[in-house]
Amino acid sequence: MLQLKDLLIQFAIIIIPVFLYEMFWLSRYHNTSPKQNRLLVGLLSLLNIFICLLYPIQISDNMAITFSILLMYSAILYGGRVIGIIVIFAKPLFMYLLYDISVLKCFPFELISCILPLIVSPQWVSFSRRKKFALSILMPILYAICIICLLYYEATVNGVKEYQSEQTILSVCIFFTVLTITMLFHVYLREFLFENAEIRVQMQKSEKLNMVSELAASVAHEVRNPLTVVRGFIQLIENQESGTNREYMKLVLTELDRAENIISDYLNLARPQIEEKKIINMTEQLNEVTTLMSTYASLQGAFLQVNVTEKMFTIGDRAKIKQAIINILKNGVEAIKETKGYIKIEANIEKMRDREYIRIVVKDNGVGMSRGQLDRLGQPFYSLKEKGTGLGLMVTFSIIEAHKGTIEYLSEEGKGTEVHILLPAYHMEEENTEEL
After folding, report:
1. Comparing C-alpha atoms, which of 296, 322, 279 is closest to residue 429?
2. Which of 3, 215, 324, 337 is 20 to 30 A off residue 346, Cα-Cα?
3. Is the pLDDT at 432 greater than 50, yes or no?
4. Strand partners, 344
5. Is residue 49 within 8 Å of 91, Cβ to Cβ?
6. Which ranges does the record mark as transmembrane (predicted)?
7. Is the confidence at residue 272, as pLDDT, over 60?
């Protein structure tokens, strides 16, 4: 007979790995949004499947079942197909070691029910929360159908009358109802904790940005004024000097310009990131920026390749978007050390999570970056340039995020860097396609 305590034990065994995953992975300090730790998902699933099998739920004298199928689904969806397949075929091994080969008659039906999670696994991360919840209800229902078919076969063909009793049917119905609720709660909890981890990362970034912004707002103007005066007098003196002193004056002016650029970066952090919202023709914007940067790239021994889709629009601040793209292109050009370097700019419309985005990819064949360097990109005062401050890239990240977009760097030392920018796409009627 089905016991409440058995259901509660199985429920706890399914939920515990979620909190262990939070404790060992999500609660750690992350510079960027945490990625799924697939190995940890697989190990926790294997451990808890084994524990599940130690405390089976007795449906009748000849039938015992567990919630372990949910851990198999979780391993597939959050650990990927490879981890999922390992977990799937580890379960019959555990069952054989703990009991005997006769208990494996349910495994083919469990294998059939795993087809759906195996199909949706690669797209699971990009699904909306509503779609994830719908699938988390559908999966145990399909499993229930498979098991009910097995019980029907045993009752009708093999004549197991025990499976035809009202008590067994009621126990099976209660079991699969609780199983479905547990799966839904398991997915909800995973999504909730992962979202909290992302929020923590964003809060850490916001605190750093606010600290730098407050510093910028308080001192930038005060520093810029004396620099302007010094620059003016240096230019006057330069006109009256000659020879070595004149070269010294040029060097002083160069350093003053660099100081001015640093102050401008501070001021950009202190100002609101979107000062105006207008329709931006990103096709024209990208062509304009690449034309502007082509001369600079040529001087550095690199050339630009542009391939963008026609009629791409977004909403935002034209000047800020332009500044962000220029910063990225400038960093790419400066990362190229050889004379035959290149920068590729590609842009197209891409559909994700039931809406369309403009994906901009900037790829170079420069020196590349290590994993540790990638994790620190966008932090204040971290730069790979000898005289860099890191503020330019920090401003770029802030601009993209302020436009409800995302920016991601992919790189490998010695093999160049790829920058992926996603911006929400905006649709216009043909008669209104003229950019404002």
Report:
1. 279
2. 337
3. no
4. 305, 363
5. yes
6. 7-27, 39-57, 69-90, 96-121, 133-153, 168-189
7. no
Token couple for 271: 């100002």
What element of type H or E holds 347? Answer: strand 341-352
CA 135, 137, 138, 140 dihedral sign is positive
How far is CA 390 from each of CA 33, 211, 270, 384, 387, rounded to the nearest angstrom?
20, 15, 15, 8, 10
Q: β-strand 341-352 against 302-308: which pairing, if any? A: parallel
Q: Which tokens in the block code for residue 359?
A: 């994906």
421 in Cβ contact with 407 (< 8 Å): yes
Token pair for 95: 């069952």
Q: 261 with 271: CB under 8 angstroms? A: no
The per-residue pLDDT for range 334-365, each reduced to its tens digit, is 888 765 788 899 999 988 767 889 999 999 88
Task: Write out the two tokens for 195.
Answer: 């979202």
Full DSSP string of 87-135: HHHHHHHHHHHHS-GGGGGGHHHHHHHTHHHHHHGGGGGGS-HHHHHHH
- Strand (E) or helix (H) holding 65: strand 63-65
What pLDDT does 81 receive?
94
Contact 206, 167 (CB under 8 A): no
- pLDDT (tens digit, 9 = 90+) per residue, 287-340? 888 888 888 888 777 888 888 888 899 998 888 888 889 889 888 888 887 657
Q: Are 277 and 313 in contact (CB under 8 A)?
A: no
**What is the rounded distance in angstroms from the CA atom of residue 42 to the CA atom of residue 66?**
18
CA distance 107 to 88: 9
- CA distances to 71, 92, 282, 347 from 51, rounded to whole Å, are 11, 14, 55, 50
For 93, the token pair is 């091994």
Question: Which residues face 418 on adjacent strands?
Answer: 363, 410
String of DSSP letters for 379-399: STT--SSTT--SHHHHHHHHH
Alpha-carbon span 390 to 379, nearest angstrom: 7
Residue 399 to residue 206: CA distance in whole angstroms: 13
- What are 251's two structure tokens? 């060097």
* 242-252 pLDDT tens trace: 666 777 787 78
Class (C level, CATH) for 278-432: alpha beta
**Distance in angstroms (rounded) separating the CA atoms of residues 88 and 73:** 9
Closest CA to 427 of 321, 351, 370, 364: 351
Q: What is the pLDDT of residue 434?
A: 40
Which amino acid is residue 413, in one-letter code? E
Give residue 138's Cα distance to chain centre.
26
Q: What is the end-to-end Cα distance of the chain in Å, rounded?
A: 72
